Amino acid sequence: MKVKVNKDKCIGCGQCVSICDEVFNFGDDGLAEVIVQEVAENLEKETQIALESCPTDAIEKI
């Protein structure tokens, strides 16, 4: 599984980081970013929850 954060939609609320900080972190711009090339199988469920929890739908599967 691969995901990305659409910076045009992200508001930096931190929901994804609080759910799955092994995949998401804050960048220097204060917005979320993906910190792994590919999501490990054991983190896919948490990543999917983060994706579904994003209030602006900024997280996208690629």
Description:
This protein is an alpha+beta fold and 62 residues long. The protein has one domain (3-61): Alpha-Beta Plaits. It contains two helices and four strands, in the order βαββαβ. It has helices at residues 15-19, 44-53; strands spanning 3-5, 24-26, 32-34, 59-61. The strands form two sheets. It has a two-stranded antiparallel sheet with strand order 1-4. Strand 2 (24-26) and strand 3 form a beta hairpin. It starts with a strand and ends with a strand. The model has no long low-confidence stretch (mean pLDDT 98).
Write the layout of secondary structure elements.
Layout: E1 3-5, H1 15-19, E2 24-26, E3 32-34, H2 44-53, E4 59-61
Antiparallel strand pairs: 1-4, 2-3
